[in-house]
Amino acid sequence: MFEDDVWDFTDVIGLPVQLALCTRRFDFTEITDERWRLVGKELVLAMLAPRHPAVAPLPRAHRTALHLTSCAGRLDELTRFCRWLSEHGVSRLAQIDTRIRDAYMAHRRYVLYEHGAVVGEQGPATRRAAAQVVVDLVNYRELFTADSVPADLRPWGGATASAIAEMPSGRIENKTQPIDDTVLQPMLAAALFLVSSLGPHAVELAQQIREADKLSARKARGLRAVHVAPVAEFTELLNEYTDTCTPLPMLADHHVADRLASGWAADDPLLTLATGVLARQAGVTQFEARWMSRLRGPLEDAVTSVGIKEVFARDAAGVTTADPSLVLPWTLPLHLLQAVALVGIVRTATMIVLAAASGMRASELMELRIGCRLPLEEPTPGLTRYRLASKVVKGQPLGGTDDEWVVIEPVYRAVELAEDLHDDRHEGALLFGRFAFSVRYKWFRNWVNSPAGHRLGLAPIPSGQVNLRRLRRTLALEMAYRPGGVLATKIHLKHIAVATTEGDASRPGGAQAELLAEVNKHESDRNLDLVLQEFRNYQQGILPAGPGARSLTEFFASIDGKLDPAAAPKTQRSDRDVLNLLTKRAKVLHLGPANYCWFTDPSRALCLKLAGTPSADRPLVGMCDSARCPQATHHPCHRPVWAEHAERTETFLGQLGTTRTTERARLQADYDRALRGVTEIDSANTVNRESA
Asked: Which one in 50, 219, 335, 447 has a CA-CA gap of 20 to 30 Å to 359?
């Protein structure tokens, strides 16, 4: 009810999972003044219900309902403003003038130390919230019944809160930066390794944890409290351990430290024995210290016979580590908390793979449920389509909009693993629920960089900010590099409506144009790095192959000559100077699947000749025949592609019948061409190394 001092929206159907529980409760009791508390209620109601008869006639009111998150933020800032007014002797909103307004903005703008010394400045979002609360009180003042700001108050000449806060418009640069490759590569490699190699074993470990909770937890069913030492029960239990040669459960390190602090001797044979676990296995709620005098003898005998060991993953299965030459147990024996943590690390790995390779927002990941993997489709023979079902929340009405994501197989398998790790696998249960990715990633990175990750051959992950927005941005740029990638990116990331609108209107400076310009900038930088890398390879004796190899080698030789101190009075040796010399050639570089295309002369491009478009300003990479084009080169990085093609073609040749002579001749020519590509790449490097 409107009169309630706490508005609880927790049970409203359709609220996004991402919405925190604290944001679903509006507590007006934080505003101590009864009149201002009523102002707060009227303001929040107006923002939630803009079509209310009392709100709709207001000339400056919002015409669309604000999200609960936005309303919660407005209420928090209003509460803070009212508290500040009371502290400064202001008892009525009608007293607010330009001086009070500016004083509050200064209070929220600067970070103050003792004695009022300014030590920093708040971000634009904080400044905008401070300005917005004053703007809201002005825009809705005709609505308020208990108190209101003066009728002639027009803060900052009617400027918006964003302009007052000097908030960047976002048109200059996207503030969300992509993740650096030095962080992305080891992070994804570790996540994929955990999902593919450790995932099945983590599922078994999770099941062991659930079984242990049923049998050994303090609240397990069937346990009883006893006051006399259960000697018979312990004797029977210890006999089972010794008969099966099973080590007794070990106590976690922090509990061992507690025992030492309480006076246990460091050489006590029972120091690391988990007596509480044994007690619950014997049917007793807890182990009483006064029982030790009667049970010490049997316990020490059992320890001498079978020893003490961690409970979980005692006989871990072997896996091939990140170093393919090593096969090790997938984990060392673990305590309960360590086992729970390891299962959580694998769950985080599934999140990383899913977010990095699908581009789903945090809100969309949190809406995933058990059963979200849709049935596989095969639109054409040999091509499988993997799909996930979730909801688009951003910009959608209450409840979100059901949608689907087409993903690659590793993502599909990661979701399958996350379902298997779930404690409650009933259909429709939230797969991940609400989570803090930054915290989970920190745990994941610490584990990869720990001795456990080093033992499995995982490369350490450097420090650097990683969040879901940056993962999404990185994927967007990688997709947009491809032909037609800008539109494909907007479709996959659920921005197609924006792309269609901007495409029809041809609006300069729109989001589509900005993304395209940014992609072109990244593509230019990438091409320049590739040219520099090949130039360095040339200097080290790693030469290109292919029809255009001689031309490229001569170009590199001319650049190398300019760097020779004997050839010029100025020595140019820094990367910046070299890049300046290579920039022109980088502008004509186009990447093919198995070659580099140096599009220096359109009249010599074989693809344009075959297509009948000799005047085109870009090559047709899809029609490239790099074995014959005089502007194509092959490099060591392309060798795996040629070798794989040769291997597959050889397989097809072996499967052809004797009557299919035409097909055999075509495949044989293709096979010979692929072998020739591999041989030329190897030959160029071998000959040059021998001459060197």
From this structure: 447
